[in-house]
Structure formats: C-alpha cells, structure tokens
Design goal:
The structure holds 2 protein chains of 2 kinds.
Chain A: H1 5-13, E1 31-37, H2 41-54, E2 59-62, E3 78-79, H3 89-106, E4 117-121, H4 124-139, E5 145-148, H5 149-155, E6 170-174, E7 178-179, H6 182-195, E8 199-201, E9 206-211, E10 217-222, E11 227-234, H7 240-246, E12 253-265, E13 273-276, E14 281-285, E15 290-301, H8 309-322, E16 331-342, E17 348-351, E18 357-361, H9 371-384, H10 398-401
Parallel strand pairs in A: 1-2, 1-11, 2-8, 4-13, 11-18
Antiparallel strand pairs in A: 3-7, 4-6, 5-6, 9-10, 10-11, 12-15, 12-16, 13-14, 14-15, 17-18
Chain B: E1 2-5, E2 9-12, E3 17-21, H1 33-41, E4 49-55, E5 63-69, E6 75-80
Antiparallel strand pairs in B: 1-2, 3-4, 4-5, 5-6
Classes of the chains: A alpha/beta, B mainly beta.
Chain lengths: ~425, ~90
C-alpha cells in the first residue's frame, strides 16, 4: 500500500481498521545471495539499497531481537554533517543528502526536521578550531556559518552567556542539520526493503559462521537453523567484536555504554540542536516536547545497556552550566546503548580478510546520522566488492597502515573519543 | 558501580580513572610492526569477564587490576596491579 493523503482518507472512513502491517515478518529460507546480520537502521538501509540500487533482492536481514531494538532505538536522533577531516566530510554529507530525500524515497514519514545544529564555542582557541572546521566543510560544499555572540543570543536567548568560566563567545551553525524520528527511519527502511522482496527475520540470533574448505564464509548458524549465503555482512554495532570472534577475528573496537536522557514534555523551547563546547553536553527537543540530551560515554568497557551515576551527574552539570533553566525540568527517563568505540573514533565499512565476510562497524556514538549513507555504502561494497567513493577511507587495515581518521586527535584510547 | 579497592575498601566509581583491558602486553622492541599494530589497536573486547586496569586517582593512587563482567558490571576481583607478576 502506498501511503498518501488518499490512503489516509480511505482509512479514516473505515475507522483505521484496515491498515496492513508495514512490512513482512519472514521465516528464514535455506539460502540467500546476501545475509545481513543486524536489523537496525544500518542493516535495513543496506538491504533497501541492495534491492533498489543494485537489484539484489535475495537478501535476508537477521535480527536477534526485534528490528530497531538496539542502538537505532536508543540514540538522540541528531543528523548533521559537520565533520572536519577529508575522510569523513564527503561521507557524512552524502548521508545528509540522502536524509533530505529519504521520505520521498521510502514513502514514509521519517520526520526529518532540518532545524539546525549549533556548536557553541567558549574561548579564542575553540573559535579558531571551529573556523577551521567550518572552512573545511565549506570547501567540501557543506553549509557552515560562524555566529558571533549576538547572533547566538538572538537564536537562543536562554543560554548562559555570562558564565564565569565558560562564557559563550559564539557558535558554528549547520542549518541543514537537525533531527529525524529514529523508529520511523527503521520502519521506513524495513517497509521499503520488504516491498522489494527482502526477508526481515526477527528473533534469529547468529551463533556462528559456516566456512567452506577454502575458509570462505558460506553461511551462518542461527537460533532458527543454518542459512546459506554467498556473502555475509555484519552490521551489529555494539556487538561487532562478538560476531568477529565467531569468525576468529579481533577488531580495533571496544564496546562502551553511552547514556541518553529525556525530560518531561514542555512547550517548544529549544530551536534546534545545541551543543556545549566546554563540556560534553548536547540537547534538542523532540516534537512530543521532551528535552532529549546526552554527553560522554561512561568510559569503561560494557555490554550492559545501562550506565552509572558519575556520567549522569556530569551531563546534568553540563546542562546547568550552559542552560541553567534546565534545572526546573524533571527528568523523565534515561537509558544506555552499547557503542562500537573504534580506536580512532571513526567507522569501518570494508571487506574482512575472510572471503565472503563484510564489516560495517565502529560507529562510536555517531551511527544514527550515518544510517542512510552507511546503508548505501555497505550495499555498494557488498554488491560490487569495491568501496563507495565517499567511504574509501573507512578501511579495516587503516590502523596497521597508520592512516587513522582521528577527528578528536585522542590516539588509540577508545574511551576518550 | 563501586570498586573494592584493596587499600581503601569499597569506593565509588567517580574516584577512579579507567585505563582499559589489562591483557595486551607490550611486544619486544624488535617484534616488528605487525606485533605493535596488534598491541596498540586490536582488542578481545569480551562480553563477560574482563581483567582491566583502573587508577584510584581520587584515593590511594594505586593502580588496580579489576576483574569485571562487562555484561553486568559485577566485580569479582580487585588487586593491586604491582602485586601481579606480569
């Protein structure tokens, strides 16, 4: 069924009782051309673009729980392409362009809202760094505007401009950045992929790989039986190391927990996404009215999907420093998700040394905004065995080869990225 | 999460600094680039028990070797790192 004003009107006449499920909950077949492990945004986007762009429809997406139940349902829904390094900017900008056309492509309302992403700066040195990043973005054709203090005050008069230690001096604004509805992104991709014949198989946990005599991957063992595949793509951020270990590989990744928070719903307050430059705190407001915010990862290896109090305090202190009125709002919920923290803070979309096995991993806490381009580029890699032109830097061997992409300049210490 | 420091007793997480997995061992100087690449970048990253280094920065300033389950954050052992023969 194609969604439109007419389908809505038709359903309204029948009290909305005739809506069909948006996608098909499939049972596993014995074999596929491509098996994608992980039914999050990235895995489903990969399946959609494999079917749509490359015409490969013998595709299964295997999900151990329910689709979108991992990090796709735990992020803070921000989309942006305000990166500073050559290896990153074209990729994230391609993702932003795909976001801009996503709803037409999927025929699904993903609530993409380009309400702007504003990074505040609080010192001369930070201003210089932001000018440099903004210029790098503009050289790649990405929009970036440097705002002075007065322009920021006009946009967000409620911020703490006269903080004794961290006075706001201005900000770097990407107007095309914003937010999208994370669950709708998952459901939209699932619906579009399913319509083209992709099998979405839930409650199907991969427990091992089938190897041929030459070592090649020829399928997967799952909790719902063995499934043969010519190619297997891993897209399970948070658990990439566990899957890789089943194939006998170690990855340049540690799993860390990142917490996020939402307040009770209030009237419209925050115009876009605002980030505090002197600590790690970022905030936006959902269409439902809740203030959605977060900060640093907890900083120790974890698969627990829940964090601890020191980071809760740190995030709230950041919020109080940049926006003191937030202290009047009550916290509604907080939760944790497991991040693939890579050794340089940048992702991996590459073949592995094992023939037939492909990897999309290492997204740190930036995977949501990358969903469309990660799917696009992973599909390109799976279909053609060549990296997409915007993802040529995301090689697995870049660590050993010394070509790391370290936006933050922290070195091989994942908990600092 | 509280860490049972062998010197100070149970202390809150915020007193500690995390260093990470305690298992990578620095290769000999002539071990070659591949060995150093593995040492610097590759990790087991287990979902389960992990031996790791913590520094009690806001306490006794000892380095600890803590065994913790990464699935539950439950700590099963904590010893002074210097007492562990490497």
């Amino acid at each position: 069924m194609r969604y439109s004003i007419f389908s809505l009107a038709r359903q309204a006449l029948s009290d909305h009782r005739d809506w069909k499920p948006a996608w098909r909950d499939a049972a596993p077949k014995p074999a596929y051309d491509v098996v994608i492990v992980g039914g999050g945004g990235h895995g489903l986007a990969t399946a959609h673009y494999l079917a749509k762009i490359h015409g490969i429809t013998s595709v299964a997406v295997l999900e151990k729980g329910w689709i979108g139940g991992g990090n796709a349902g735990r992020n803070t829904t921000i989309i942006r392409s305000n990166y500073g390094l050559d290896g990153n900017i074209p990729f994230y900008e391609w993702s932003m362009k795909l976001w801009e056309g996503l709803e037409q492509d999927l025929n699904y309302n993903a609530m993409v809202s380009q309400r702007g992403v504003l990074n505040l700066y609080h010192s001369d040195a930070q201003r210089d760094a932001f000018v440099r990043r903004g210029n790098a973005m503009r050289l790649h054709g990405v929009d970036a505007e440097l705002l002075d203090r007065d322009a920021v005050r006009k946009m967000a008069p409620f911020l703490n401009f006269d903080h004794a230690r961290f006075p706001i001096q201005g900000g770097l604004l990407q107007r095309r950045g914003g937010t999208a509805r994370h669950d709708a992104v998952v459901w939209g991709y699932a619906r579009a992929a399913s319509e083209r014949g992709v099998d979405i198989i839930q409650n199907c946990e991969v427990t091992g790989f089938q190897r041929g005599a030459d070592g090649r991957i020829i399928g997967v063992e799952t909790s719902r039986g063995p499934i043969r595949a010519n190619k297997v793509g891993i897209s399970v951020a948070g658990n990439s190391s566990r899957l890789a270990a089943m194939a006998g590989m170690r990855l340049p990744i540690e799993s860390h927990v990142l917490q996020a928070f939402v307040s009770e719903a209030i009237k419209p307050l925050i115009p876009g996404v605002i980030t505090f430059g002197a600590g790690h705190f970022y905030i936006s407001q959902s269409d439902k009215g809740g203030l959605v915010f977060g900060g640093d990862i907890d900083g120790y290896n974890s698969y627990a999907q829940r964090g601890n109090l020191p980071v809760v305090e740190d995030v709230c202190e950041g919020g109080m420093a940049v926006m003191p009125m937030i202290g009047r709002v009550r916290l509604l919920r907080s939760w944790g998700g497991i991040m693939d923290m890579s050794m340089d803070g940048s992702p991996i979309i590459d073949r592995t040394p094992i023939p037939g096995l492909y990897l999309n991993a290492g997204w740190c806490y930036g995977g949501f905004k990358a969903t469309p381009a990660a799917g696009w580029c992973f599909a390109h890699l799976l279909a053609t065995d060549q990296p997409h032109e915007t993802a040529t830097a995301y090689r697995l061997d870049r660590f050993a080869a010394g070509r790391v992409i370290d936006e933050k300049g922290q070195g091989a210490q994942p908990n600092l990225h | 999460m509280r860490i049972p420091c062998p010197y100070c007793g149970d202390r809150d997480l915020h007193e500690f600094v995390y260093r990470g997995d305690a298992s990578p061992k620095r290769p000999e100087a002539d071990a070659g680039e591949a060995a150093f690449g593995d040492y610097v970048y590759l990790r087991e990253n287990p979902a389960g028990l992990l031996a790791e280094h913590w520094y009690h920065a806001q306490g006794c300033r000892n380095w600890l070797m803590v065994v913790r389950d990464t699935r539950t954050h439950a700590i099963t052992a904590a010893r002074l790192a210097r007492e562990i023969v490497r």
